[in-house]
Specification:
- This protein has 247 residues and is an alpha/beta fold.
- The protein has helices at 18-29, 44-50, 65-78, 99-109, 111-120, 146-167, 193-204, 215-226, and strands at residues 9-13, 33-38, 55-59, 81-85, 124-133, 171-178, 237-240.
- It has a 7-stranded parallel sheet with strand order 3-2-1-4-5-6-7, with helices on both faces.
- Helix 6 (146-167) links the parallel strand 5 and strand 6 (171-178).
Length: 247
């Protein structure tokens, strides 16, 4: 049975693992065409074997203007773009006053996401839906991740105003803020196995179901935000965190 995603074009960055990969898989399962961008193909390779006619991969980094321009050109060839999810993101532990750490994380988490929208704004369909990926930590604290949290909080603030500005063009903009999710980003924090285990145990105690989210759970919420089921939602940030911020 045909559904609203059938033959529509979605652009997803940070697509090779974690939430981005899960979202690409969910979109492809629903018949969408996907233009996926990431630095390496990673987990997209098995998906391409199953969906070779509907999945296009473009190697690139959202901090590179040349790579984003290439993404814009590819989208123009495949478009119009019905769905956009600038999902690429990084996290690193750093001193809270280390502004260089903020600059590095903002370059991907904030500027990278906003520049992705900027380069694709002329390729968006009418109607179209954009979902930015923020973080549950904008409502909480986590020592060592102040720069990461600040980058996501700044993105959230800009996205809310963009939602008003882009509504004129029949484009809905919203955010989804994942909570503790079992993805590779935890391994990028520079913690050893014992430290990671201690962090995981502390976080898990605050999760109502007693376990981390899986990437597909977050992807399904993003999918709904993209869909016409959420057509009355503008500028909202939906937190998907297994109850972490309730305790």
């Amino acid at each position: 049975m045909k559904n609203e995603f059938q033959d529509r074009l979605a652009v997803v960055t940070g697509a090779s693992s974690g939430i981005g990969l899960a979202l690409c898989s969910a979109l492809l399962q629903r018949g969408a065409r996907v233009l996926a961008m990431s630095r390496t193909p990673g987990g997209l390779l098995p998906l391409h074997e199953s969906y070779s006619t509907r999945l296009a991969w473009l190697g690139g980094d959202v901090t590179s203007s040349d790579d984003l321009l290439a993404l814009g050109r590819r989208a123009a060839q495949m478009g119009p773009v019905d769905y956009l999810v600038p999902n690429a993101g990084i996290a690193e532990l750093a001193d809270s006053l280390d502004l260089a750490a903020f600059d590095r994380q903002w370059a991907v988490n904030g500027a990278g996401a906003l520049n992705t929208l900027a380069v694709l704004r002329g390729e968006l369909a009418k109607p179209a839906s954009v979902v930015f990926v923020s973080s549950f930590l904008t409502r909480s604290t986590f020592p060592g991740l102040a720069a990461y949290i600040a980058s996501k909080a700044a993105l959230t603030a800009q996205a809310r105003t963009l939602a008003v500005e882009f509504a004129t063009f029949d484009v809905r903009i919203n955010l989804v803020s994942p909570g503790p999710t079992a993805t590779a980003i935890w391994g990028s924090l520079g913690l050893n196995d014992e430290q990671l285990e201690q962090v995981a145990e502390g976080v898990t105690r605050r999760l109502l179901p007693g376990h981390f989210l899986d990437a597909a759970s977050v992807a399904n919420v993003i999918l709904f935000q993209l869909s016409q089921g959420a057509r009355g939602v503008y500028g909202q940030d939906w937190v998907v965190d297994n109850g972490y911020t309730l305790s």
